[in-house]
Each structure stands twice: as structure tokens, then as C-alpha cells.
């Protein structure tokens, strides 16, 4: 399953914590055992054969049964708490997890949470390698048909324009009349992917981006829940509403966890926490300067 999901022996061996030669030997023994090739090796990629696709379907069913059996038997363990391993975006984890845990505690559910803050690609690897039971990631970062997992809607937060408060953007009526330093900051975009000619920094985390905005280094377009990343994150930063849509966060979860306790209850608690989230304050976007500023950071 790990090789099928990762498509390379290198990535699969990393997921499983095995040396690549050992994994290659195990795969060869499996193919010998079933009497046919399960993968075609092409340009360092492992492509499932028709026989391999058949075995993957059966392997998924086997792994689901194992997970369900383990969860069902845990209740018989004397004094043992159920452990839920969750991996996800740090902004979402920090924003909704405390409320979800409080809801579980109020319902009398005794669970232990193992939390991993990770990027979407890492979350998927942890799910496929069974290091995590639930993954919290943005819906548009994964394919709808991710093998073996269901996408359960959790929360939506709008994209906002983060600007140093010192600029006083909501009071600006004429960009040409702004001080040169303020105009320079307003035209300096902090990006997460490919930038524009005005890009001044590329970041991997929203936390770093907020820090740069706070320091007056530039401006940034990011999801509103990033305000929960750092205590007092909005001190010195103004959030402006935009028309760039919302980030839809989903829980990536195997089908069996939607049916068994305590996972089912925990996912429901995440959904309830998402519905009750209080977004940070956002100012209306100054329409008279929208065409001059916002497009530069949205390209």
C-alpha cells in the first residue's frame, strides 16, 4: 500500500521507516508469493499493474478491518484511553482543536490526542503510512479521489489582506499622496508560491508571513484563521476583507473512522467547533484603491 500510494520506493521506505533495500526485498517476496508482478518499474517510478490494482483493493479492506478491530478492542483494555493521532495545518489545529477537545470532554469521552503540525504533503504521507488517523488540510490541496479517504468538511475561513496598521490603509484616499515608505511597504508582497516583480519574500508558513507583515516588511494575502497562530498576532496588523474566496478545510479520514468511537465523536466535535469559530475582525476593503493595490498580491 505504501509503495502504491507514494509511487516510489524511496518515499515508501521513508514512510515505513525501512531501508530501501529491505523494502525492495519484501516487495520481491510478495510478488513471488502471489505469482505475478504487482508493479511496473519505469523511470524510478512504481506503476501498479492490473494485478497490483486488484491487490490494493483487497489490502485496503484488510487494513480497514485491522484498524476497526484495534479501535473496538481498546475499550476492553483496563484503564487505557483511546489515542487519536491528528496531523494538520497549524493555523487550523490551533483555531479549532481546543474547542473540539472541550466538547469531547463534556460528552464524557476519554481520549488522548497525538498532534502533528505538518504541511499538506506530509499530512497525506502520515495518513498513508498510518501514522495519523485524521488529517486537517485545505480541500483544494488534495484530489477528491484520494484513495481510501473521505473528505469531511470542517471549517471555512476567508482570505484576507494583511497590512501593517501603521499604514492606516482604511484612511487612505489617494495612493499618490501616501508617504514613500508606506507606498513601498504596500507594494512589497510576501508570497507562498510563485511571486510577482514586487515580491519581497517567499514563505513556507503563515506564521512567518504574519511576522514579516508585523515588522512592516510588506503585505500578504492569507486565510483569516492564521490570526490564531500567534498570541496578539493582530497587534499592529489590519485584516481587510477580500473577494478572493475562502479556504475550505476538510478532515481526511478513512471510512471506518466515521463509524467507530471515539473517532466518530471526535470528528463531529471538530465540525461543531468549526461551525462555532469566531473569525478575527476584518475591515472593509477601501474600494477607491482596490484596483491599485490588491491585484499585485493576488496574481
Q: Could you give the count of β-strands?
A: 10
The strand order across the widest sheet is: 4-3-5-10-6-9
Pairing-aware structural class of the strands and helices?
alpha/beta
The gross shape turns out to be globular
Straight-line N-to-C gap: 38 Å
Strand proportion = 15-25%
SSE order and pairing:
Elements: H1 2-6, H2 9-16, H3 20-34, E1 39-42, E2 45-48, H4 50-74, E3 82-88, H5 90-106, E4 111-117, H6 120-128, E5 134-138, E6 149-164, H7 180-186, E7 189-191, E8 199-202, H8 206-214, E9 220-223, E10 237-254, H9 263-275, H10 290-298
Parallel strand pairs: 3-4, 3-5, 7-8
Antiparallel strand pairs: 1-2, 5-10, 6-9, 6-10
In a few lines, what is going on in this structure?
This protein is of the alpha/beta class and 299 residues long. The chain has helices at 2-6, 9-16, 20-34, 50-74, 90-106, 120-128, 180-186, 206-214, 263-275, 290-298; strands at residues 39-42, 45-48, 82-88, 111-117, 134-138, 149-164, 189-191, 199-202, 220-223, 237-254.
Describe this structure in words.
The chain is α/β, with parallel strands linked by helices. Helices cover 39% and strands 24% of the residues. The protein contains 10 helices and 10 strands. The strands form 3 sheets. The chain has a 6-stranded mixed β-sheet, with helices on both faces. A hairpin with a 2-residue loop joins strand 1 (39-42) and strand 2 (45-48). Helix 5 packs across helix 9 (263-275). The radius of gyration is 23 Å and the shape is globular.
Amino acid at each position: 500500500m505504501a509503495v502504491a500510494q507514494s509511487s516510489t520506493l524511496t518515499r515508501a521506505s521513508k514512510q515505513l521507516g525501512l531501508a530501501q533495500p529491505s523494502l525492495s526485498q519484501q516487495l520481491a517476496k510478495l510478488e513471488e508469493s502471489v505469482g505475478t508482478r504487482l508493479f511496473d518499474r519505469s523511470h524510478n517510478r512504481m506503476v501498479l499493474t492490473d494485478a497490483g490494482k486488484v491487490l490494493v483493493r483487497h489490502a485496503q479492506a484488510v487494513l480497514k478491518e485491522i484498524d476497526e478491530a484495534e479501535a473496538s478492542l481498546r475499550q476492553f483494555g483496563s484503564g487505557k484511553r483511546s489515542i487519536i493521532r491528528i496531523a494538520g495545518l497549524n493555523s487550523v489545529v490551533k483555531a479549532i482543536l481546543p474547542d473540539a477537545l472541550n466538547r469531547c470532554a463534556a460528552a464524557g469521552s476519554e481520549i488522548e490526542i497525538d498532534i502533528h503540525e505538518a504541511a499538506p504533503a506530509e499530512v497525506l504521507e502520515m495518513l498513508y503510512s498510518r501514522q495519523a488517523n485524521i488529517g486537517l488540510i485545505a480541500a483544494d490541496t488534495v484530489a477528491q479521489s484520494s484513495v481510501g479517504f473521505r473528505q469531511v468538511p470542517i471549517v471555512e475561513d476567508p482570505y484576507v489582506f494583511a497590512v501593517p496598521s501603521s499604514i492606516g490603509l482604511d484612511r487612505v484616499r489617494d495612493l499618490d499622496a501616501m508617504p514613500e515608505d508606506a507606498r513601498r511597504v504596500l507594494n512589497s508582497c510576501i508570497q507562498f508560491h510563485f511571486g510577482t516583480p514586487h515580491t519581497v519574500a517567499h514563505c513556507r508558513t503563515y506564521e512567518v508571513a504574519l511576522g514579516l507583515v508585523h515588522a512592516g516588511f510588506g503585505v500578504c494575502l492569507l486565510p483569516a484563521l492564521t490570526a490564531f497562530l500567534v498570541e496578539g498576532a493582530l497587534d499592529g496588523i489590519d485584516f481587510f476583507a477580500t473577494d478572493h474566496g475562502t479556504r475550505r478545510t476538510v478532515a481526511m479520514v478513512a471510512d471506518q473512522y466515521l463509524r467507530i468511537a471515539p473517532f466518530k465523536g471526535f470528528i463531529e466535535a471538530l465540525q461543531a467547533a468549526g461551525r462555532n469559530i469566531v473569525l478575527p475582525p476584518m475591515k472593509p476593503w477601501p474600494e477607491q484603491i482596490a484596483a491599485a493595490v490588491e491585484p499585485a498580491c493576488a496574481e
